[in-house]
Amino acid sequence: MLAGGCVRRSAVDRNSFSNSRAQISLLAQSSTFDIFPRMSISQVSSTSVESLLKEDRIFPPHTAQADALGGANVESLEQYHALHARSVADPSGFWGEIAQDFEWFKPWTSVLEWNCPDAKWFVGAQTNVCFNAIDRHVLEGHANDVGLIWEGEPQASGMPEVRHLAYGELQDEVSRFANALKALGVKKGEIVTLYMGMVPELPIAMLACARIGAAHSVIFGGFPAPSIVDRVLDAKSRVIVTCDGAWRRGSVVPLKKNVDEAMQSLVAQGHAIEHCVVLKRTATPIEWNAARDHWWHDVIAKESSECPCEAVDAEDLLFVLYTSGSTGKPKGIRHTSGGYMVYTAYTARMTFNLKPNANHVFWCTADIGWVTGHSYIVYGLLPNRVPTLMYEGAPNFPAEDRFWEIVARHRVTHFYTAPTAIRAFMKWGESHPKKHDLSSLKLLGTVGEPINPEAWIWYHEQIGASRCPIVDTFWQTETGGHVITPLPCATPTVPGSCTLPFFGIDAAIVDETGNELPPNTGGLLVIRKPWPSMLRGIHGDRQRFIDTYWSRIAGMYLAGDGARRDERGYFWIMGRIDDVINVSGHRLGTMEVESALVSHPAVVEAAVVGMPHEIKGTGIAAFVTLSLQATASEALKAELREHVSSVLGAIARPDMLRFTAALPKTRSGKIMRRLLRDVAAGKESTQDTSTLDDFGALAALRGNDE
Ligand code: WTA
Q1: CATH class of 15-126+321-576
Q2: With respect to CATH, is domain 580-702 assigned 3.30.300.30?
Q3: Phi and psi, residue 646, nearest 5°
Q4: Which helix (H) or strand (E) holds 247?
Q5: Given this model, what pLDDT does residue 31 score?
Q6: Is the pLDDT of residue 49 over 90?
Q7: Alpha-carbon torsion (354, 357, 358, 363), positive or negative
């Protein structure tokens, strides 16, 4: 616990010690969690913490893996350490050299200007991200090489729709849509909102924005209308691009209908969308307003496929992407052009050991609505001239082997997914991957949450045939690209650890005063030096940017995760330290869910916490106090769950919902969340309840098991 602003260290921390299991498990009971007043074991993936603390299996890289990948980009741990030391000692020299691999219309005058918390990278330089992703390859003679592979979800005739888009075709399609955006009056610097399914036209629209110097805000297609309203208002978008519908598990998600609902409520709030471009995907009947709505195929029909790339400043906005924080309002994370381009492409090249001429096919299973899709389906992949695969639908449609069918069909070499998906695959059973030829795979990756060693080993054996290296990549919407990750031919991996910082990343575990902690001591994960793709702010909220990331520890970027570093220097992420929970690898603010619950007339108060969940890692537990007029019933529980889903999307639907006459609070009125977490996890609480105001509330919660 924090006492007088200082971190109280446990006896274990004060002594230097070796990595013995007894000591580590003692650590698990004491310091790791004690220093985080708002964090408990139940906030971290269900099985991960206990097993993470015991894990000591090492998987060293071997030469056969490097050969399979077409040769190592970084050959050994020694080489990694030497390069890392240099990158941190001389960031300008290091990144200046890396950036030479990209096309710049005007060179920089200085690589970095750092005035904490404001970083400017490649100052004075001009470039265009779309040019580096596409045009450059066309100019270098690769117009006919495939850059994007797309597979649709429906399999009406047994075979899905597949598209292979070569760089030349991408250039034409992007240019046409870029011209269409210009014709609709889109100007350099404005933010276009994209709310689409996983269709090729989504990256095409993103790149079209980049091409003309406009920025985009992609909204995940699983979000309902209220999420569109908030984000459009914040970004002040005048133009929105959507689809009639999106395919998901055989049914249609009514995207245009959601946009219509959002546009109506936007008008009521004094903001009118001027143009809504609609891609026909599902041929679902939709409402149409001829003054505002345009078919995608109509707007591109009259446009030429010539559209020069606008020269933009390295620090011009490339996109805003909204992510949950610890208040009810999502944060619009701002990323700019030069630094984000260099860092995402370089991390993709090194972390995945990509080579342009080695028959690599890279598949990241994330949705482009999240940062993983932005960085490792689109922006990090295309500049490397390695085909990037995107799949439209669900992993279990029409059956649980769909992903493995895709791997076999497209001879996927690199497969990048989330631990929650791996746990679902485990549950579905190994018979599904066994039905398909997965011999093309050379590298596996994970992202989004700590991976429990059981899932890591299953992934390694059942999907990677004990042959493929696994890269467990730690990063965030705010970091733009991987910040802690193994390099596949250099870093020995240990299941559950994301291992070592990427080049240029000065990561550390510190206490509340910013002092670095000794090995195996839980603390705050920080980054002490700027890196090229770091966030450049929260859109329209300077103070929140400073408060969230830069105030708690002066001069350092606070990631918001608790972690420890072992005696090898490897990082072990323990989970969020704020009121954000990580549900199926997606960030969700508990306050957002609470606000959604309270917006229902039957609810007077709600508290939301994370609880262990077999597949999702963390599930959502909601404790709800009803108004006097409302009557508790199973039907009302179902209605409230549905209500949350309609406000925030299915991701936020509570897994467990309990009615309670009162919430346990301290005398000062603070809800005792740790206690609720214990109740949700079915544990006897060890927390001191001496300040608990209403012991009756706790007793009632305990007795009120679902
Ligand atoms: C968590 C996703 C452990 C972490 C790219 C972080 C991870 C949040 C890992 C960011 C990992 C991401 N191991 N935890 N390899 N990767 N996280 O912004 O809590 O959606 O702060 O970015 O996910 O989530 P975001």
Answers
A1: alpha beta
A2: yes
A3: -75, -20
A4: strand 246-248
A5: 31
A6: no
A7: positive
